[in-house]
Structure prediction request, 536 residues.
Amino acid sequence: MAAKNSPSYAHRNFLWERDKKNIPILMDSFPLNKYYDLNERLKEHFYKAEKSKRWDEAYCLGKRYMTISVNVIPKHPYYQSKAFVTRKRAQLEEAKKVENRLHFVIQMMDADALLREERAKTAELKRREEEEDRKFAAMVHRMEQNKLVDMGKAGPQSNNDSSVPSAPPAYDSVSPEIGKADDCAPPSLYPEPPAPSFSSITTPTAPSYAAHAPSAPSAPPSFETYNHSSSDYNNYDLNDPCEPSSPLYPKTYLAPIPMSQLKQVFSEEWRNTLDKTKNADVFALETHQGKVRDRNGLDSTNGCTVIAPLIATTHVRSSGGVSDDAIAQIIDNIAPQLLHVIRAKLKLGGLGFISPSEVHDHLFDKKIISPESFVGVSGGNVMSDEHIGNMLDCLNDDGGGKGQRKSACAFFFHAHVVCIVKLVVNGGKDIWYDLIDSLPHLVGNVNEGTRTRCKDVESLRTHLRWYASSKFGPADCDYIDENEWNDASAELDPRVFQAFTWACGAGSHPSVAMSDDDNLNSSNSDSGTTPICSSR
Prediction:
């Protein structure tokens, strides 16, 4: 953007280090339209700041806009979709305009930097001159005081009285102690005065320090003095995700425990649940997404948003719980065709990620999912016990019952969707929770999809903490450490999750069946799979 020898380079770099944390993390599940909308609002605020000559603010907003335009939006899986061609072209045109105006803003910041530098030099020169004046005034004052002392010592004397002490020595033979105070002035400037009487001495007014010595020099003027208009972020709507939630130099939030350490703690807790308490097991499925192509050459790669709700509704409609055979049927045979249809509908090419909302709309429209069996949506911070607790309450809610009916949810987190199913076993005495993941994981010597069985709700909580924290990369950990959870910006937070829950009941029955093409062919038997390994 500008060379490192630019006068404002250091200042701009300082500003950007503070502001770049406001760049949203790319999430495949976050609708592309919202990224475009976010940038539109950023552009408007950038132009307002530039027009008001708030250069610092304009620079941060403009660079944030360009960073999202160049480094975030093009990486979204929907970016090449034909449905967004118009917005894509408009964004590219606007980015060129913003870039040109941003260059102008930098020129103004350079001019301000030079002005600040010049005024700082002028202020420093003035301070030094005033300091020299103060020192000179102090020196003159001391010399005048010494002169008065010397004159005061020269009292009247009698030449006829030999007992009277002789007159004080002349001024130029003053004792070394006094002479040292005045040795900076040539003696010729102060000839020996006559010996006046005390009554004839007129005491001159001594110069005052206050008259010559200025107060303590002030610090060089701050940048805001010459910044035309100070940046004010406090007037913005804090619920607007494109706006800062604090001033230009916000207070830094610091998590009590770094996420990198919490990841280790959660991993150890889950390991203990598997190996010591034996409250959980991990099973390998027979397949995973993308493993098998159907007769039309289609597969289920990147199809978790379709697979998870299909598993959930199959479980709810089954008599005993979704089986491994039914899961394999969904992954290998049913999901590929549905993915192809939905991608074509949305004009997404290849293996593009489909947002859960688009999938749910299609499944509801085709009556693959029964609206009557839908319990509700929960979500929030995956690291919050309260928010996870709300999801579990939704999963276990029987509308006043005792938690005996089957239920399941599609758990959407970090651009991936898994399915959590609730199993009522041992005649209703126990409740197990299976987390079914269609992505391949190594279990023993097998690399397949997994079915993790938690034998009580606390084990499920432990597993979710480990599962969620294992998804956080270094950038996610940094964001979490520096940003407290905020509902207003939840969609851009790596901790955000959503859970769509279904349950069997009066409204959920086999009569709400799918068409022959959409039939899930689910097994009605309980999963009898033997665990291959009790740990990962």
In short: Residues 341 and 362 are 10 Å apart (CA to CA).
